[in-house]
Structure prediction request, 477 residues.
Amino acid sequence: MKPPRLKLPVPLTRRREPHTLAGAYAMDAISAPDRTRFERHLARCEECAQEIASLREATARLATASAVTPPPDLKERVMAAAAMTRQQPPATAPADGPARTRAARAPRAATWLASQGWRVRLTVAAGAVAAVVVFGAAVVFGTSNGTMRQQLHQAQASSQQIAAVLTARDATMMTGTVTGGGTVTIVRSHSMRELVFTAAGLHALPASRGYELWLIGPAGDRSVGMLPLGSGHMTGPVIASGLRSGDHLALSAEPASGTSRPTMPMMLDLAL
Amino acid sequence: MTTASPGGRTPKPPGTPRVREEAIPPDPVGLDVQIGLVARGDTAAFDAVYEQIASSVFGIVRRVIRDPAQSEEVTQDVLLEIWRNASKFDAERGSATAWVMTLAHRRAVDRVRSVQKEAERERRVATSDIPYDEVAEAVESNFERERVRRCLGSLTELQRESVTLAYYGGYTYGQVAGLLGVPTGTIKTRMRDALIRLRDCLGVT
Prediction:
């Protein structure tokens, strides 16, 4: 005979031995509804929170005991992605006193642990990027004859365009290494035929020279433009539009005024 | 004439540590401190954090997910999450290692549950050697692995299978109960007992 099943709506209370779920919860061996319910309980039960914390010290060792060296290029990708990802501010002290602090923490941790997907983070990144682009775009458009107001309009339009690419449904991220130093991260949307380019750690060039970005492919070689002077470590973001199939993204060092044909060899060649 | 310098120049063999009963230190040196620095946007600290934890994160993610490409993707997500949410780490609530591995494991499990079809997974688990299945290549930290293996070995068979299927297999307790043909109530209890025993055996708190 099968044991009686606990009906789902029954709330977990101390009397109903919520502790029995502690092991399953600490190993994430729990369905989403059970997880939510247990976390609600956890927020009110200091003892349970402590038990979970101690069990997780044990499960963490199950994890570290499985360590495997990741592929070497993963680090570059992670560092480049971090460079274009805004960090979350620390939690501020709750208004209703320290007694609730601890209880309130568990569900919050659970919230950020919830899977979000990188596109959500890119949305956040888009905000950070927007701040940079006002500077970057001002540099790019600075050579035009427009007034400051026009430049700012262009900068805003550009940051919206960047945010649109970063949050496109088909947005994908790619990274590449620049000959001579530096890492490039791009986010590309096929449907929009656009990409957002950023670079980190590019080798500084003499003032008379600059980096020029290119789209190279069956449709011909098109200059995307000179990269803005980076503020410190980061360069970009720069948007490239009108991608065609078979295009490669390339980077070359050119005279600061730019050129109509790239100088070989390319310092970056990324198949899109 | 030879003057023996007692204990002097003989280079110590890089042998295995003998003090097996000592507790595992909660964190590799300074991981909690480094994560505090990462919260302030310190990229050098993030670099150091990466060096300390990337292989553990990749290891557990890969063990749960198996598919190398997906594992890399999730590992990258997890590491970025650490960058992004470093300010949320609270040393009072546990070690930095536990914080990182909890995040990594949950992400891996979420990926497996959202992406893979149950049928595929069951077929796969049926053909794999569950309890001591190891990824063959470049497995690190032998000492700790040995210790974990020993502590897993001290569990009852049902406890060990529950932990292995749940933690490394990414199954819910309900699925574990189904796979082992045991009532869910029993599995829940075994899981908790097993982790308490593991915790005590590993000397972590």
